[in-house]
Amino acid sequence: MFIEAPNSIINKSTKEVFEFLTDLKNFEQLMPENIDKFEVINENRFLFALKGMPEIVLERKKQTEFSQLILGAASEKLPFTLKADIKSLEETKSEVVLSFTGEFNAMMAMMIKSPITNFMGTLSGNLAKV
Fold it and tell me: Tell me, what CATH number does 31's domain have?
């Protein structure tokens, strides 16, 4: 399953956006209003839970300075990644594309597609406001 959020245009340099995203505690600002729990575990992992949903632990998998951050599920039960691609538009303007990739059976994919699409849209929208 692949879901791409609408592009976010941010009035900050790629360096500023990258540094914001790589400081994992900042993801709390991007979360939806129905967040039930958010906790930074260490510099490479954080945990979050939306109301009525199980806790999810994300960990930093890979990063390319000023252009990309890839977070992935810490659990092998639900293998997925959340990727942020950062592109410079001008010296102080960047574009960020958030994408979700996961390997799920057809039934699970059908159940989670809509909530994940909404979640990605919220992350993208809140990132544009930062």
Answer: 3.30.530.20
Number of structural domains, the chain?
1
Using CA atoms, how far apart are residues 110 and 118, in angstroms rounded to an integer? 14
Q: Half-sphere exposure of residue 101, counting CA atoms within 13 Å on the CB side?
A: 6
DSSP track, 57-115: EEEEEEEETTTEEEEEESSSSS-EEEEEEEEEEETTEEEEEEEEEE---HHHHHHHHHH
Contact 14, 87 (CB under 8 A): yes
Structure tokens at 56: 């999810």
CB 66 within 8 A of CB 14: yes
- Domain coverage including residue 41: 2-129
Report the DSSP pairing between strands 8-10 and 93-102: antiparallel
Report pLDDT digits (tens) over 12-54: 999 999 999 999 999 999 999 999 999 999 999 999 998 888 8
